[in-house]
Specification:
10 helices, globular, single chain, Formate dehydrogenase/DMSO reductase fold, 224 residues, mainly alpha
Length: 224
């Protein structure tokens, strides 16, 4: 169970890390937002630390991202910290996820890669809202990317289920339906602010994150 959750956390950490890097480098953000984004990276440092017992290679992104966070100012600043170290952390994170996906086989590995987008997008959205980001485009782009990734996840689960023997497939029906139901609930809660045309709330996004992480965990344990 914990190994499955570590795979979900790893995928989400990488996806969120990439989104925050994009915001930090390309976003039109004020000094206050920049400092709050620097603080947000500490959550991802903690995520990589949780993964290390199950994937020792995660030590590299943990160290690199920790160095970046330590050397970045958490108050108002126009400086982005040591960007080469951040790129190094992203590269190490990508290698850690690819290595874990390769060790798990085709179906589980492909599912992990889809979760980089799905879990990473909702995680980064939570962190951006917590950092009081004013980049409104991301409040629309991230849920849409999550919906596409959720559809891809459903396709991967369906294709993997059809390749199983009939007896095994019948035994996994409940788990598959649970996973699909949770991911559907998660993206619906996630995108509710788009339907209402209101700003997203952190509580809303955290509920969506829990549902999506639960769906991802059930899906991985089902196909493993």
């Amino acid at each position: 169970m914990y190994e499955v959750l570590s795979s979900v956390v790893m995928s989400g950490a990488l996806g969120a890390q990439c989104v925050l890097t994009l915001v930090l480098l390309k976003g039109d953000i004020c000094p206050g937002q920049r400092g709050r984004l620097h603080k947000a990276f500490w959550y991802l440092v903690a995520a990589w630390a949780l993964v290390i017992p199950f994937s020792p290679f995660a030590t590299l992104p943990f160290i690199a991202l920790g160095i970046f966070s330590l050397r970045s100012k958490s108050g108002k600043t126009r400086l982005s910290g040591p960007i080469p170290v951040l790129h190094l952390a992203n590269g190490f994170g990508a290698l850690a996820v690819l290595l874990a996906a390769w060790q798990q086989g085709v179906s589980v590995g492909t599912l992990m890669l889809s979760q980089v987008v799905l879990v990473g997008a909702i995680t980064s959205h939570c962190l951006l809202v917590r950092a009081r980001s004013r980049l409104q485009a991301f409040h629309r782009i991230l849920p849409v990317a999550g919906i596409v990734a959720a559809m891809l996840m459903a396709v991967i689960i369906a294709m993997a289920s059809t390749s199983l023997p009939e007896a095994s497939a019948n035994a996994l029906v409940t788990s598959v339906l649970t996973s699909l139901g949770l991911v559907l609930l998660g993206v619906m809660v996630w995108a509710v602010h788009l339907l209402r045309q209101t700003p997203p709330h952190l509580l809303q996004l955290c509920c969506a994150l829990m549902a999506i992480v639960g769906a991802s965990g059930v899906a991985l344990s089902t196909l493993a």
